[in-house]
Amino acid sequence: MLYFIIYITKDKIIYMKRQEIIEKFNKQICIENYSDQTIKNYLSVLKLFLEWVEKSKLKKVDENEIQNYLYYCKTEKKYSYSTMKQVIATIGFLYKKVFCQPLPKALDIKLRKPTHLPTVLSIGEISKILKVTNNLKHKTILILIYSGGLRLGELINLKISDIDSEAMKIHIRGAKGKKDRYIMLSENVLTLLRAYYKAYTPKEYIFEGQKGGRYSPQSVQSAFKSALKRSGIKKKATVHTLRHSFATHLLDEGTDIRYIQELLGHKRLETTQIYTHISSYSINKIKSPADKLKI
Fold first, then answer.
1. Which pTM value belongs to this model?
2. Do the Cβ atoms of 222 and 230 come closer than 8 Å?
3. Does residue 188 register a pLDDT over 80?
4. Which of 89, 149, 277, 286 is a good FRET partner for 56, with 20 to 30 A between their CA atoms?
5. What is the CATH number of domain 3-107?
6. What is the C-alpha to C-alpha distance for residues 137 and 139, in angstroms, rounded to an integer?
7. pLDDT tens for residues 82-104?
């Protein structure tokens, strides 16, 4: 049984069992109203950290050991930038909120964010994908994701009551960061939604499984992958590529980036600004100095 040692003073030591740590962590993160997905992710990271401590047979976890763990995650586990951020945030929450201790200096770091540009499909390519998608349910799902730049989790959580056909908008509830927002409802999407509703008659969620309840994300991913293959498009695209494409196409049309930020539900404008690097609108409005040459 793992005992995690926390030094409070030179004279007093507190020992906590592994399960006790997990339970206290879970209670605190629930109290602070983190989203269900974030809680699930943090607990997964926490358990892996505690397993590493146990396997390493450490008598105590100090600054050096935390640094060793981060090094292990990066070099042995090959964690990505986002996963490393999650590890640092989880261990930080553990110390500050569960152990009530100062943040270890080993966690006081700023990761260098890689600048990988997302894959984007052209409007023609998205039309091609929809054209080869004969299943009405799958076609409605894919066009709905693209039409509003939805995350996959937002799509499968959509309820019938979230569609406002009079105001032509869709209510996205409890999205990332537990934030609500509205997005536009396309005329084309509304037409497909009505045809889909008549054919499938969902009860609560717009897209439901065969036994009711939310449609599975794996089914959506499978439908997109199948359509992409049939379309003959060779780009490495995923369902999330439809969201990237939505944002880029809006920027191409000259839509103010702050409106795009609101539609995507981004907390920081910096997150949305990555689309300026791949938008043909932002690239083409700048003239190359080579155009002034006489050749």
1. 0.71
2. no
3. yes
4. 89
5. 1.10.150.130
6. 6
7. 899 999 999 999 999 998 888 88
127, two tokens: 């039309």
Q: Phi and psi (nearest 5°) for 208? A: -120, 155
- The CA distances from residue 269 to 150, 172, 263, 294, in Å, are 17, 19, 12, 40
Residues in the chain: 295
Q: Which of 174, 176, 117, 125 is nearest to 146 (CA)?
A: 125
Pick from 162, 266, 153, 172: nearest CA to 216:
153
Q: Would you say 204 and 285 are in contact if contact means Cβ atoms under 8 Å apart?
A: no
Asked if residue 59 has pLDDT above 90, the reply is no
Rounded mean pLDDT, 101-121: 86
**Sheet of strand 163-164: strand arrangement:** 163-164, 169-172, 181-184
Average pLDDT over residues 119-133: 94
Handedness of CA 50, 74, 242, 274 (dihedral sign): positive
Domain ranges of the chain: 3-107, 123-284
Could you tell me the pLDDT band of residue 275, with boundaries at 50, 70 and 90? confident
Q: What is the spatial distance between Cα 220 and Cα 222, in angstroms, rounded to a whole number?
A: 5
Both tokens of 288, joined, read 């190359």
Specify burial of residue 227 (Cβ count, 10 A radius: 0-12, 13-18, 19+). buried
From residue 186, alpha-carbon distances to 130, 140, 170, 241 in Å are 15, 12, 10, 19
Is 123-284 a domain of CATH 1.20.58.100?
A: no
Amino acid at residue number 268: R
Q: Which of 242, 255, 261 is CA-nearest to residue 179?
A: 261
pLDDT of residue 10 exceeding 60: no
Q: Considering just the CA atoms, what is the radius of gyration of the chain in Å?
A: 24
Active site residues: 151, 176, 240, 243, 266, 275
